[in-house]
Every structure is written in C-alpha cells, then in structure tokens.
C-alpha cells in the first residue's frame, strides 16, 4: 500500500516504484493518488496540492463551442472504444501524451474490464474524432487524458463526461492538475485536504454512467456558457 497522500512531498509525490496491478491502482484512486510516469526514474505516484477539479455545475461552455454543439452532428458514447481512446491519447504529438506508456495503457485496460476505468467517445458518423478516459471511484471521476482528431472534439468529450456524471449522481470531476486549457473549461484548484474529504464521502456511492449513444446537440442546452 502506498503512503498516506497527506504526507506527499512539495511536488505532490506520495511514493515511487509500486506495481500497476488492479488492486494497487484501485487502492490508489480510492485514496486520491495516481501514477504519472517520468522517464529515467521509478514510477512516481502523485497526490498534488492543490488539486485540479471541475465542479459539476461549473463546466464552462463558450458561445463558440455551444454553436459547434448545435451544428456538428456528432454523437457520444461510453465504453464503446476504451482501448482505441487510450491508444489515441498515447499517440498525441508532443510531450503531453508520452507519459502513457504501453505498460500503463495495459493497466488501465485491465481496470476497464473490471469496471473501474471508463471512456467517453465522440463520433462523426462511424469515425472516432475525440474522447477521454479515466477512473471512476464512486461519485468522483478522475480524468486521465483526452484527445481530438477534429477541433473541439476533446472539449465535447469533457462536457459530455461531466453531464453524464451529473446525471448519474456524481459529486466531482477530478482533472488532477489545472492547465490553461482546462481552466477555460471551468477547472479550478481545490486544497488537497478538501479534495480528499470529498473523495472519502463519495467513493462508495453507487454511481453508474449511462452508456447510451447521444447527440451532442443536447449539450448546447447545458448551463455554463460565457
């Protein structure tokens, strides 16, 4: 078992070198810890302070994105192409996708087959144009990575994931760290102690995402425009 996340160092590192067995990963996510490979060092496990989150009522949908939602004709699904989404995230150009090693991808695939990890897919006809994946612990969904092959498709995946989590009775969408891009979507920083308290209360909730296919045009009516 990894150490208590409240004892993480100033960089948010809780420990290094643990395996990626499903039991290890589930225990980690239930306690607010996630793996983040770095080249040349044993596998680090993080619980950053502050933590990046999106409040379910706080996702931002810009006017331009709202217009895109109304007119693009895309649809979304859940868990229809988990492995394809992870592979697409790992293939993203630049440094952002390189941390998704083949070993890590296989580990999340095992979690998916056990019901802990989920994907949201964005489709244009039969083509996968965007998506995200992450780990759900009760009422908290931790987003791990997202990708797009067409502009705005990853944003659509995020808005859809938040919408489905809200509908299912979830409590919080965890993005781990706030990036400038995620900030435009409504991400904010939450003290780690507060995040861990919410996770503790929500991690055993019987929250189940609905996996039906849905038109993204329905998301244009969601609150949060600016």
| CATH fold descriptor of the largest domain | Aminopeptidase
- Largest sheet, strands/sense/barrel: 8 strands, mixed
Q: Under the CATH scheme, which architecture of the largest domain would be assigned?
A: 3-Layer(aba) Sandwich
CATH superfamily name of the largest domain? Leucyl/phenylalanyl-tRNA-protein transferase, C-terminal domain
| Overall outline | globular
Report the β-strand fraction as a percent range: 15-25%
Average pLDDT level: 94
Structural class: alpha+beta
The largest beta-sheet arranges its strands as 10-4-9-8-7-6-5-11
- How many domain regions? 2
Would you count the extended β strands for me? 11
Share of helix among residues? 25-40%
Radius of gyration, in angstroms, nearest whole number = 17 Å
User: Which CATH first-tier class of the largest domain would you pick?
Assistant: Alpha Beta
DSSP helix count? Answer: 7
Structure description:
The protein has 226 residues and is of the alpha+beta class. It has two domains: 12-46, Alpha-Beta Plaits (2-Layer Sandwich); 51-221, Leucyl/phenylalanyl-tRNA-protein transferase, C-terminal domain (Aminopeptidase, 3-Layer(aba) Sandwich), CATH 3.40.630.70. It is 31% helix and 24% strand. It has seven helices and eleven strands. It has helices at 22-30, 63-71, 82-90, 102-113, 153-167, 180-184, 192-202, and strands at residues 13-16, 34-35, 44-46, 51-54, 75-78, 117-124, 127-137, 140-148, 172-176, 188-190, 214-215. Strands 10-4-9-8-7-6-5-11 form an eight-stranded mixed β-sheet, sandwiched between helices. The radius of gyration is 17 Å and the shape is globular.
């Amino acid at each position: 078992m990894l150490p208590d996340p409240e004892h993480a160092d100033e960089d948010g590192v809780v420990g290094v070198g643990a395996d990626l067995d499903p039991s290890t990963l589930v225990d980690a996510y239930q306690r607010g810890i996630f793996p983040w490979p770095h080249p040349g060092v044993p596998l680090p496990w993080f619980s950053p302070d502050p933590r990046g989150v999106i409040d379910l009522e706080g996702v931002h949908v810009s006017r331009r994105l709202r217009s895109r939602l109304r007119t693009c004709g895309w649809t979304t699904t859940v868990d229809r192409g988990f492995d394809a989404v992870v592979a697409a995230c790992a293939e993203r150009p630049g440094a952002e996708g390189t941390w998704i090693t083949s070993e890590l991808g296989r580990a999340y695939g095992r979690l998916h087959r056990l019901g802990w990890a989920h994907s949201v897919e964005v489709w244009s006809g039969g083509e996968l144009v965007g998506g995200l994946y992450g780990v759900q612990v009760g009422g908290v969904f931790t987003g791990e990575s997202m990708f797009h092959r067409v502009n705005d498709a990853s944003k659509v995946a995020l808005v859809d994931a938040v919408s489905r989590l809200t509908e299912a009775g979830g409590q919080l969408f965890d993005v781990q760290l706030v990036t400038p891009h995620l900030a435009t979507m409504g991400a904010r920083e939450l003290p780690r102690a507060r995040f861990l308290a919410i996770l503790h209360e929500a991690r055993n909730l019987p929250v189940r995402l609905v996996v039906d296919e849905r038109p993204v045009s329905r998301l244009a009516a969601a609150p949060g425009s600016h």
